[in-house]
Structure formats: C-alpha cells, structure tokens
Amino acid sequence: MAYLTLERRQKKSKVPARLDVAQSLTGLVLGLFILGHILFVSAILLGPEVAYKVDKALEASFLDPEGHGYSYLVSLAAFTIATILIVHAGLGLRKFPASFRQYRIMQDQIENLNHDETRLWLMQVVTGFILFFFGSAHVFAMMLNPGQIDPYLAAERYFGHGMWLFYLILLWAVVVHAFIGLYRVLLKWGWLCGKPRQARRTLRVVQRVLTAFYLLVGTMSILYYVKLGYERADLPLQKYGQEIQGSSSSTHP
C-alpha cells in the first residue's frame, strides 16, 4: 500500500502586497498634488497680481468677510502632505539597496541587461533620496510659516536669500520622481488601454513630454521670481497685499 504524504502549504503573507498598494496610493496622491502645485506656482508667470490672487484663493479668502483668507489652511495642507510623504518614504525604503552587495547586483543588471525599467527605478531612488531632505525642509517650512506665502516674499527668498538653487534642485528632483512614479504605478497595476506593448510605449512618451513640460514651466517660474527679487532688491521688503492696501488707502482718503 502506497502512502501519499501531503505537505501542508504555508499560507503566503499578503503584507508585502498590501504595502505595495499603500506605496502606490500614497505616491499617486503626492504625484497629483505636485502636478497641481507646480501649476499654481507658475501663476507668477502671469504677474504678481495673478499669483497673489491664486495664493489667496488657496487660503479660502472668498470665505473670509475681510478677504484675508485663513493661513492655517496652508499649515493643515502642509501637515497632511508631510504625513503622506513620510509614509510613502518609509514604504519606499523597503526596496532600497540595503547593502553594497545589493547595490552591485543592481548596477551589474543595469550595465549588462541594458534595462530601461531598472534605470528608471534607480533614478527614483536617487531623486527620492534628494526629496527626503529637500522636500521635507520645504513642506515643514510651509507648515510652520503659512503667512509667508506671497509673491514679494517669495521673490526675496529666491533672490535675496539665494534660495533659487535649492528650489531648482527640488523642482527637478520632484518632477522626475513624480512622473517616473506615476508611469510605474500605471504600468504595475495594469491601468493601460489597448495592447500592452503599444500602450507602454505611448505611456513612456507621455511621461517624457509631461516631464519636460513641467520642468520648463517650473524653471521659468523660478527665473521669474529671481528677476522679480532683483528688481525689488532696493525697495523696502513688504507683502504684495500690503502694497495693494497702501495704494488703495492713498487713493481713498
């Protein structure tokens, strides 16, 4: 009589998959936020007045009888983004090379296989490392100083304080990281239309075009702030809103 021994299969943990879902969702939220944030900042390209109105609209000035807005909303938004950023970074650390040996294996794969997806992943690792420091500093500064969001004050930071390089590095890191991330999320979870191979190529082209567009718009915004700061270098530092109030009070005695 033959006996058949059945080994009890161990149930595989669903935790890694759930962590991947959480990482994708938090990355998706951050990516969409970045898309909107850069466009809002680019309002300066239409002039300080437009940028000021956009800033005030984001502070819900239309709900304030005096029209000043509620700056604590900026702190609340920054706190929310900071929390999501920390969670996303923590989840992303799981896939960073944990040793020099792992790094060499990854580097050998890039060099020998000529694999674009691995190169994109490496770019995300590098830009993610930059964002951990630059992005966190920016978000926490906004959270602690919500009243400093103003076209003239921003121009002073960019030019007078020499922060233009900080924001330029932050811009390039966050745009590259965000669009590679959005591309990989759509690819990973199969959110593509049509034939997979063709859809993948199309998605890659869209990712590159949008990356170039946002880098161009963001860089132009930084240069405009530098120019504005240079033009106002010899003028007393004040908010754009204070200038408006001063001019209106002088015309209405």
TrEMBL record:
GO terms for cellular component: membrane. The keyword ATP-binding does not apply. The keyword Cytoplasm does not apply. Its cofactor is heme. The lineage of its organism: Bacteria, Pseudomonadati, Pseudomonadota, Candidatus Lambdaproteobacteria. One of its GO terms (biological process) is tricarboxylic acid cycle. Keywords: Heme, Iron, Membrane, Metal-binding, Transmembrane, Transmembrane helix. Heme b binds at H37, H88, H138, H177. Membrane-anchoring subunit of succinate dehydrogenase (SDH). This is Uncharacterized protein. It comes from Candidatus Lambdaproteobacteria bacterium RIFOXYD2_FULL_56_26. The chain crosses the membrane at residues 21-46, 70-93, 120-144, 164-187, 208-226.
